[in-house]
Amino acid sequence: MTNLKVLISGASVAGPALAYWLHRHGFQPTVVERAPALRDGGYAVDFRGEAHLTVLRRMGILADLERVRTGTGSMSYVNSAGKPQAELPADLFAGDIEILRGDLARILYDATRQHTEYVFGDSITSLTEDADGVTVSFEHGAPRRFDLVIGADGLHSTTRRLAFGPEEEFVKHLGVHCAIFTTANHLGLDHTGHAYRTAGKLVALHSARHNAEARAVFYFAAPQLDVDRRDVARQQALLAETFAGNGWESDRLLQDMRYAPDFYFDSVGQVHMDTWSRGRVALIGDAAYCPSSLSGMGSGLALVGAYVLAGELAAARGDHRVAFARYEEEMREYAVGCQKMGDGVAKLMVPGNRALPRSSTAITRSCRTCRARTWPPRAPARPRRTSRSATTVNMPGGKRTEESSPRPRDLDAAMVHARSEPFHGSTAQRKLAVKRKSRDHRCCLPWLAEGRAWSSSGCFL
Ligand SMILES: Cc1cc2nc3c(=O)[nH]c(=O)nc-3n(C[C@H](O)[C@H](O)[C@H](O)COP(=O)(O)OP(=O)(O)OC[C@H]3O[C@@H](n4cnc5c(N)ncnc54)[C@H](O)[C@@H]3O)c2cc1C
What we know:
Structural class: alpha+beta
CATH architecture of the domain at 5-71 and 98-170 and 270-347: 3-Layer(bba) Sandwich
Bound molecules: flavin-adenine dinucleotide
C-alpha cells in the first residue's frame, strides 16, 4: 500500500467520514479544521434512502443518529394570520433521518478521534506538489508533508481555490439567499414547522431540540450579493431590509435575530467541476459537488462520496491516479442527479412572482413532480463495468436492460451506479442475476447491498 499519509481539510461531514473509512482501510488521516472547535448545533440535515442508511449502518453510527434525530413531522404553509393552508409531508423535507448538522459532526468526530489526528483552528495556505507528495503550509502550524490532500472544506473550499482556481469558476449561484438562526419556540410548535411564502420570499419557523428551541429560516430570491461572508452585521441589516413588514412572524423573528446565539447567511449555490482531482489533491462533499442546501442531499452525498473515495484508494492499494479516476467515475452521475434536484427545489421554494399553489395536494404534487422530473438520471453505457440503478442496468458491453420503476421514496438510493464485478455467463443468466439482485436489494449500490469486501485485502467491514 502507498500514499498512507492523507491530509483532509474540513471537519464537518465529508472530512470525518473520509477519515473513518481511510483508517478502516489502513491509511493515516489527519484532519485540519478552520474553526477553533467542532461546530455544534446549526440547521437540520437529512439522509434519504437505502444508500445513505447503509453507509451509516456500516459505520456503526446509525443507532447514534436515531438517538438524536429531530423527529420533525409534516410542515405547514400558513397565511399571514398563521392559519395553515397546506401541509407538506415529512418525507419531503426530513428524509428518513433528520439530524442537526452539528450533532452529526459530533457523532462522526467521536467515531474517528481515537485514530485520527485533528488540528482545529488552522487552515491550509499553500500546496506544493512533487513526485513523492505534497508540502502543505498552514496559517498557524509549521509546514508538513503528506502523500495526498483531500479538500472536504465545503462550498467555499480553500483547497479547491488553491489547487483548481478561484471560486467563481466553479460555484453556480441559484438565485436564492438563505439565513438561519436559533430562536425561541414562541409558537409552541410540536415537532413541526410553519412556513409563510410571499413573492420571492419564504420565512419559516420549525421546532428543534424536541421543541425546546426553534430555527428561524429565511430564503429570498436575489442575484449574487456582494456581502462579506464574515460580516454578520451587514448580513443581518440586509435581511432586515428585505423582510421588514413582510407579514406573519417576519418582524418578530427579525428582532429575535439580533440576540441569536448563531447566525448563518449565505447564497444558495452549487459546485460544478469537470474534474474533482488534480495530481495528489482531490475534493469531496460540498467542495467538489455541492448540490445546494435546498436539495436535501448534501450530507448523504458527502457521506457516500467519502465511502467511495476511501474504498477506491484501498482497492488501488493507494495509487491515487487509479483511485481518483474511479471515484469520479462512480460518483459523477449520482452527484449530477442530486444537483438537478437542488435546482428544482430552489425554483419551487422561492418562485419569484409565481403564485403559491393553494391546496395541500397541489403543493405536494409540485414537490413530487419536481423530484420526479429530475430523478433518476439515466445510466451511461459503460463497456468496462457492470453498472445499474433501479431503473436501468448496463450489462458488460454496454447493453441496457430496463427494470421496473421504483417507488419515488426509493429513487435516491438508486442514484449511484454500481461498481461490481463483470458477470461471466450467458445473457439469460446475467439478466436473471441482475433481476434477482435488484429484487433483493433496494439499494442500488451493489457493493453496499451485498456486503462484499471492497478490496482484495477484505478490509471493508
Ligand atoms: C442552511 C443549510 C441547510 C441544509 N439542509 C440540508 C438538508 O436538509 N439535508 C442535507 O442533506 N443537507 C443539507 N445541507 C447541506 C449539508 O449541510 C452539506 O451538504 C454537508 O454538510 C456537506 O458536508 P461537507 O463536509 O462537504 O461540507 P460542510 O458541512 O460545509 O463542512 C465544511 C467544513 O470545512 C471547514 N472549513 C472551511 N474552510 C476551511 C479551511 N480553509 N480550512 C479548514 N477547514 C475549513 C468548515 O468549517 C466546515 O467544518 C444544508 C446546508 C445548509 C447551509
